[in-house]
Design goal:
This protein is an alpha+beta fold and 657 residues long. The chain has 25 helices and 24 strands.
């Protein structure tokens, strides 16, 4: 009984953090293990406490959003990690196997073709009205060609690429831990502008009700019908006992490259009549089951906690352990994320820990078997010896080095300055920059343009030589011709990624002096900016040290505006919207192709809609969801050769081609 009470308390704390505060105090794997332990104890004792999470769904909603009671409860799913259990569940029936997307479940209601309500899952009985935000979802139709009342369920998600972009602009210490938390926090905002900027997407997975429609009994055909109305639907495969295991493996092979976060698969019966005949338990529907990837677990010994100091002074703890094989690769390190998690896991050097790869990708500590709690929070930075302090951030307590002249911070700032999307100076790795700092060749970024003063010393360094030095100086010289947006990004202004730097420069006429003197109200007026970004830019250029360093560097630089045709000329792709899918041959990657399209006035989006002008794919016979959607909407498709023939390509791509 005491252990059951302890488990219930731990699970409730985790649910409160997850559903109410959009944070995580334990991994999904840890939560599942505690939940399963509680289930076993309840079966063994025959006792189920009233507040047990095995008898509830989710956590009580608590916010300023209007609460709405669902017409029918949204139950959680029973789960398994055993493929054979899925086979037994399916039996001789036909089924639908789909991604279990890791976002925020939302119920949509349309009347007379118009979206009238969007409600979050909440605790399964009561959710929150987020209609104002759903209308801003990047791929959700506001109007559909169906006059009756339509109710459907799906998942609100934010893609990995969008997650990385947003975190980059939020700044260190303010980042969201994963796309699920970001999506939940975004959809539940009171200001719909935030949802619009963060490109939330919606993927339908169940048709609940369609007034007056003569619908097929097949769930697969119902999903196709929703797709015909303009909805994106979750990727799925039609399965039976003969191909179910192959389908599971096909999904497994996509995990590492899938753009939307998922925490497993869902198997449900294709026949709606059969599904409805099965009914439900008090907690689970009987027609569906969740399949979670069986995390390959390894036991090892914690040998060290490293504290890596970033350019803002944030010190990130990293667990270093005896190497183990997981999911086909050797791992020996895992991020602990922050001080709060370090304390909650009671880590200590020499502890026996269990590690796994979350979603088969990211190394994580699943459990600390020893729980010695002997790991010390350093009082001084390991690099500079400066005092540290603990600050409370979004996801808990974090450690900071308080010394602004810390060499570790300076190294990371210089690494950012020379990075590809910033000044793009090749030949300056982190290790090389550390050596240059130690020898006094470089103190701040303007010194990078004066390296000729140390030519003899650099050439005599281990691993360098005259040829390496010559290549480095050539790269520095090339970097002096820089677009203003790349320079602004290189400065490392908090919340200003490359995208925001481009928006800033475009709004202020690519004029550095205007950027330096812009007032907060002028910055807030820039499309896509808010008070936080505006204040960060304004504060940066109010700092005399920042201004002094920039003035010191400017004589070496040849600033240029973004290399675009003159405004008076009509650009080749003005007003066009493109979607890119699959592998590319002529361009290095999708990012390079997207940059070229945008330079010619076009726009690149992540999903196909009625507004899409062209879908670019080198496999025109692919059955991907994007190409199916393009075919359904009559969107023309181009392979790379056809695109280049029609729109040309930048000089760099021509040389490579």
């Amino acid at each position: 009984m005491e252990r059951m009470k302890e488990l219930i308390s731990l699970l409730q704390q985790a649910s409160e953090a997850y559903y109410q505060k959009d944070t995580e105090i334990m991994s999904n794997q840890q939560y599942d293990a505690l939940y399963d332990e509680l289930l076993v104890l309840e079966k063994e004792t025959g006792i189920v406490l009233a507040n047990s999470p095995t008898q509830q769904v989710g956590y009580t909603v608590l916010s300023n959003l209007v609460k709405v009671r669902h017409d029918s409860p949204i139950l959680s799913l029973d789960k398994t990690k055993e493929p054979q259990k899925l086979l037994r569940f399916l039996g001789a029936e036909k089924g639908i196997l789909s991604w279990k997307l890791d976002g925020l479940t939302i119920v949509l209601k349309y009347q007379q073709g118009t979206l009238v309500q969007a409600v979050t899952r909440g605790n399964g009985e009561v959710g929150e009205d987020v209609t104002h935000n759903a209308r801003m979802f990047s791929n959700l139709p506001r109007q559909i060609a169906f006059p009756g009342e339509l109710v459907l369920r799906g998942e609100g998600v934010i893609s990995y690429s969008e997650f990385r972009r947003i975190n980059e602009e939020l700044g260190e210490g303010e980042e969201y831990k994963n796309p699920r938390n970001l999506c939940s926090g975004t959809v539940r905002q009171l200001n719909s502008e935030i949802a619009a900027k963060r490109k939330v997407q919606f993927f339908a997975f169940t048709l609940v009700h369609a007034e007056g429609a003569a619908l097929s009994d097949s769930k697969a055909q119902q999903l196709q019908w929703l797709r015909s109305l303009g909805f994106d639907v979750v990727e799925y495969r039609e399965v039976d006992k003969d191909n179910l295991l192959d389908a599971i493996e096909a999904f497994r092979s996509q995990v590492a490259h899938h753009e939307i976060a998922s925490d497993g698969l869902v198997l449900t019966f294709d026949s709606m009549a059969y599904s409805q005949s099965l009914g439900r338990t008090s907690k689970f529907p009987k027609d569906s089951i969740a399949f979670k990837w069986a995390d390959e677990m390894a036991e090892t010994t914690l040998r060290q906690i490293e504290w890596n100091t970033s350019r803002t002074g944030l010190m990130n703890p990293v667990a270093v352990f005896d190497p183990v094989e997981l999911e086909g690769s050797t791992v020996s390190r895992a991020s602990v994320h922050n001080v709060s998690i370090l304390e909650e896991m009671a880590l200590g050097i020499g502890d026996t820990i269990k590690v796994y790869k979350a979603n088969m990708i990211i190394p994580q500590i699943a459990e600390n078997l020893t729980r010695s709690a002997t790991a010390e929070i350093p009082a001084h930075c390991f690099v500079c010896g400066g005092e540290t302090e603990i600050r409370r951030l979004r996801d808990g307590k974090a450690l900071y080095c308080t010394n602004p002249n810390c060499q570790a911070q300076r190294v990371q700032m210089l690494c950012h300055f020379v990075s590809r999307d910033a000044m793009n100076i090749e030949g300056l790795s982190e290790e090389t920059l550390k050596k240059f700092l130690e020898k006094g060749f470089v103190r701040q970024y303007p010194d990078l343009f004066r390296l000729e003063r140390f030519a003899e010393e650099i050439c005599s360094m281990d691993g360098f030589g005259e040829k390496s030095y010559t290549n480095l100086i050539a790269s520095v010289e090339k970097a002096k011709d820089v677009e203003l947006a790349n320079l602004i990004y290189a400065l490392g202004i908090n919340h200003v990624g490359l995208r925001n730097a481009k928006l800033l420069c475009k709004a202020l006429g690519n004029d550095l002096r205007r950027v330096q003197t812009a007032q907060p109200e002028e910055l807030i007026a820039i499309e896509g900016f808010g008070a936080v970004i505006a204040h960060s830019i304004y504060a940066y250029f109010q700092d005399p040290q920042h201004l002094s360093l920039l003035e010191e560097a400017l004589p070496y630089l040849r600033l240029k505006a973004e290399d675009l045709p003159k405004e008076a000329q009509s650009r080749a792709m003005d007003g066009m919207t493109f979607v890119i899918t699959g592998d590319l041959h002529h361009y290095a990657n999708r990012k390079e192709l997207a940059a070229y399209i945008e330079s010619q006035g076009g726009k690149v989006t992540g999903s196909v809609t009625k507004k899409t002008t062209y879908l670019i794919s080198n496999d025109l016979h692919s059955t991907s969801s994007k190409q199916k959607k393009a075919q359904e909407l009559g969107i023309p498709m181009l392979d790379e050769d056809a695109f280049l023939e029609r729109f040309g390509k930048p000089a760099a791509a021509q040389e490579e081609g």
